[in-house]
Amino acid sequence: MIPNTKSKFTHFCLFISVVILSSCAGIRNTSSIGHIGKSNCYDQEDYSYTSKDLPISIEKQIIDSNLFQNFSFGSLNIANAFGVLDLLENFNILKKNYSQHPTSENKLKLIELKLAINQKVNIASLEISSVSSELDCEEERTTQIASFLKGEVEKREKNLVIGSIIVGALGAIATEVLNNSDVENLGSYVAIGTAITEASLGILMLNNKKKIEFVHERNTPGEIWVGPTTSKTLPASIWYYLNYKNSEVRKVSLRNLLIEHWKTFGQVDKRAKHNSKETHEIYFGLGGKYTFEQLENRAAMYDQIESYIKLMKQDLKTLSTEFENFSVMND
Question: Burial letters for 248-278: b for 16+ Cβ neighbours within 10 Å, e otherwise?
């Protein structure tokens, strides 16, 4: 091999190396930008209550049959969740008393209690909206980071594809030129080097799985999965509602239904147990290194939890309508 030809071959190899390095540098170091700090979706303290603060299951309470005649089970259960059930029972007693003694004083008591019940229902609606807003905020926060990481991965993959095309084209040209040179087998060497380089770029494309550090001290999906007695991220009323089940009306709690859906649709591995390291630490722990697919999956979990909690407003609306009809009877 003559010196001039050796020099050209060396330059070509260096050029290929530069192409590979430039292709690999198409994505920023996500670890340097990826430690996402404390979420701004909730600026208050965690909920702090004990099992004694949770509503007593409606089956364990003695309720006047008149209420069951005028209210659906869902309405009574949502009233129980938000502490309205006792007020309904008091209203029922006052109403019976008013029918026997229709005095102005008794009527005023009914009006005052009706206002108190309506206010309690409105506050319950605001509480549901507040919790839903936090969940929606966390979903958007997660989706935004997932979109950023996905863009970086796609950018790197594009650069690798471009690098592979350039290497292939230049390698073919160089091989053809060098095959016609006076140096024996030089074109073959270049062809082999080009093939190795293209294979390396292909491997890089197949392993283009960047991760980003994502922390979440408040972890509602984790509480849904583990099922502690009380929740730090959800108030007692909503936690009671999600965990409520009985043998007739709701045989499976909404919390367990969420878990079953996560398993059925592959969001969580069916084989994963509560002590599974990957499941517990990434999705249901304090956080860790996520791929953009995992972040998108986590965002979907938040969306599903939010949807189930918003169902409470349907029961609240029914309660409000049934109470309005009940309160005007014999008025």
Answer: eeeeebbbeebbeebeeeebbeeebeeeeee
Six-digit token string for 174: 């160089």
Is the Cα torsion angle 65, 68, 73, 76 positive or negative in sign?
Answer: negative
Q: Burial code of 36-69, b = ≥16 C-beta within 10 A, e = fewer? A: beebebbeeeebeeeeeebbeebeeeebeeebee
Query: Looking at this protein, which amino acid is placed at residue 137?
Result: C
pLDDT tens for the chain, 331 residues long, are 444 554 554 455 545 555 555 544 444 444 444 445 567 888 788 999 999 999 999 989 999 999 999 999 999 999 999 999 999 999 999 999 999 999 999 999 999 999 999 999 999 999 999 999 999 999 999 999 999 888 877 676 665 565 666 665 555 565 555 555 555 555 555 555 556 665 555 554 545 467 888 988 899 999 999 999 999 999 999 999 999 998 677 789 999 999 999 999 888 876 645 445 666 678 999 888 898 899 999 999 999 999 999 999 999 999 999 999 999 855 4
3-state secondary structure at position 268: coil
